[in-house]
Amino acid sequence: MTESHGTAPAGSVALLVGQTLAALGAGHAFGVVGSGNFEVTNALRAAGVPFTAARHEGGAATMADAYSRMSGRLGIVSVHQGCGLTNAATGIGEAAKSRTPLLVLAAETAGAAVRSNFAMDQLGLARSVGAVAERVHSAASAVDDVVRAYRTAVNERRTVVLNLPLDVQAAAAPAAFDGVGLRPVAGPAPVRPSQASVLALADLIAAAERPVFVAGRGGRGAREQLLELAAQSGALVATSAVAKGLFNGEEFNLGISGGFSSPLAAELIAGADLVVGFGCALNMWTMRHGRLIGPSAKVVQVDLEDSALGANRPVDLGVLGDSTETATAVLEVLRGRGAAATKYRTEEVRRRIKAEARWQDVRTEDLSTANDEGRGRIDPRLLSKRLDALLPAERIVSVDSGNFMGYPSQYLEVPDEFGFCFTQAFQSIGLGLYTAIGAAIARPDRLPVLGTGDGGFLMGISELETAVRLGLPLVCIVYNDAAYGAEVHHFGEAGHDGPDPADLSTVTFPDTDIAAIARGYGADGVTVRSEADLAGVRAWLEGPRTAPLVIDAKIASDGGAWWLAEAFKGH
């Protein structure tokens, strides 16, 4: 990918952009370097911002997304003009829909280069996937343009595409710059709820007999405040999938609310007479298309943005406010009214949660098939249970999208809310490996673990070379059913109404030796058809872990993921 635009001088705008971002505190950059983003990428590196070279721009975008989610620092994506940006579009869309603070540095053809093969409406593309479109307009405005984009990304939790025209990049900067004197971007002040909203929520909690609090990504910084409020209110707590691990250690924690709920968690959430979402969208996934909301239950949503309140379902009360501020204010009111209530926190509920709330405690029939002549298939639930016990507890789990996704989400425990990275807002398969690499770079103190299907893993497999090159001790669990399993189960016998069998040839494939392919990339690979084959995983865990481990798990069918069946029906 090249386009002639001259050599950027030592004091160029490209250099100025890199220096400014470093001075503002950019965390880590990811990208694929071409001629259009060569200078700005090297400027970032020279200024101290670490850079990871990906094999595809889509991989780079999702790596940066995962890095931002798990580190709390701004991830940077660097791409070439035109095709470099279009290659990254799905990853940018995922980040934008998830409201991930992210900054994409996109080279752009000069305004006068109307016949360039790379010319396109980059601003329009960015907006079409939900990102904010910005541009460095001139040498004189460059610092202000970068600061504006950075502030929007960090303070408004937005994905920003900052376009860098080639002629502007090559222009001389107005003066030498080393970041000295650049004012840091002030963070946003916490949004405090109105007193009327606080009193209204306190009244609803006081009137409820079986309250449940569900925290989403917006509640991740409010663990202690939410648990104190729940204890005062007699409420059970749960999370959306993206906040898994937030309430670890709490005896009245139900785990994930939604499609991944254990049978007990679903029963108790559906039995609530008040559901309060803190920084949680209460969408079809988290509420199972509304089936987790009882017919007479009141629903409250607490969010930083007015546009989010009631966006997915009607709510009885919408509270505009930060989760921490809201929980603190309501707790003060309730404590002023009397002692803590028992309500849903009975001894019987406590006992049942301890015995039944975790998927590891739910009994299922072993569907594994005999491994005669090396053709066995292992039950994915059994596989996930055994791996949960084998892998170190200090882990960071990433999950791709597909029929398999419930197994790692349900069975693989994580140490806290920063141990689970769930890039699912766009529902795109193929982002899992990218996610795992970005998460691994964000948390090098934890063992990175990926749960993916064969379709998604093969779709993004070029980045396995990146993981090998970085020497990541990444465990890739590939739930391999040689198919796009969601479509097989949806359009197969259960979902097919026609007189003739459904033609599934477009979504089924010959079995692939993914372990062998992984070894070709320089990773370690093991094929698992039975519990006995997990000896290979144990051996890797005992070794130096200097290369990724790819587990090609040939899984048996459990009849299809019902949580995805619900999603198909919902659409």
From TrEMBL:
Organism superkingdom: Bacteria
InterPro entries with a match to the protein in the record: DHS-like_NAD/FAD-binding_dom, THDP-binding, Thiamin_PyroP_enz_cen_dom, Thiamin_PyroP_enz_TPP-bd_dom, TPP_enz, TPP_enzyme_TPP-bd
UniProt domain Thiamine pyrophosphate enzyme TPP-binding: residue ranges: 400-537
UniProt keyword annotations, A-Z: Thiamine pyrophosphate
Pfam name, any one: TPP_enzyme_N
Residues covered by the Thiamine pyrophosphate enzyme N-terminal TPP-binding domain: 17-115
Sequence ranges assigned to domain Thiamine pyrophosphate enzyme central in this UniProt record: 200-329
Keyword Nucleotide-binding applies: no
Gene3D superfamilies linked: 3.40.50.970, TPP-binding domain (3.40.50.1220)
Record family assignment: Belongs to the TPP enzyme family.
Name assigned to this protein: Thiamine pyrophosphate-binding protein
Lineage, broadest ranks: Bacteria, Bacillati, Actinomycetota, Actinomycetes, Micrococcales
